[in-house]
């Protein structure tokens, strides 16, 4: 069990480092372009100009990195097929992009209602927590509760 856990942690750290380097090198800019292409039709449909989202985007853009922990967890996961891992990663990535689009709208509405006073920060906190937890929630969902699967490998006291 410890060996399996150690290998998972090593794969997770390795995947995280590689993805972080890619993110810093070109990924962040690439994601900003992807986000813009995905978000513009949604915002246009709602009659919202991108310029009016500038303040909200300045606040939420630092949360866009949450794609990295999700993809790192998917890459490090054992016991699922490559097909499921690929489709799951794609579905999770799409879910996170959709979340970022909605999250920006939520932050914009709170800022419009409360500016950036203490009430706004109290209202924003649960959304930030959800955004930070989303990669783990998606990973657990897509991989059929890998935490419970991992516990199956743990052997309890031997009865004899």
State which percent range the strand residues make up. Answer: under 5%
In total, the number of domains comes to 1
Q: How far is the first residue's CA from the last residue's CA? A: 20 Å
What's the total count of β strands?
Answer: 0
Biggest beta-sheet profile? none
Which geometry do the CA atoms define? elongated
Question: What's the total helix number?
Answer: 6
Q: Considering DSSP H and I runs of 4 or more, what fraction of the residues is helical?
A: over 70%
The value of Rg in angstroms is: 19 Å
Look at the helices and sheets and give the structural class: mainly alpha
Question: Averaged pLDDT, please?
Answer: 84
Q: Any low-confidence stretches, pLDDT <50, length ≥5?
A: none
SSE string, helices as H and strands as E: HHHHHH
Show the helix and strand layout.
Elements: H1 2-45, H2 54-60, H3 67-76, H4 82-114, H5 118-142, H6 146-152
Helix pairs in contact: 1-3, 1-4, 2-4, 3-4, 3-5, 4-5
Task: Characterize this entry briefly.
The chain has one domain (2-152). 79% of the residues lie in helices and 0% in strands. It has helices at residues 2-45, 54-60, 67-76, 82-114, 118-142, 146-152.
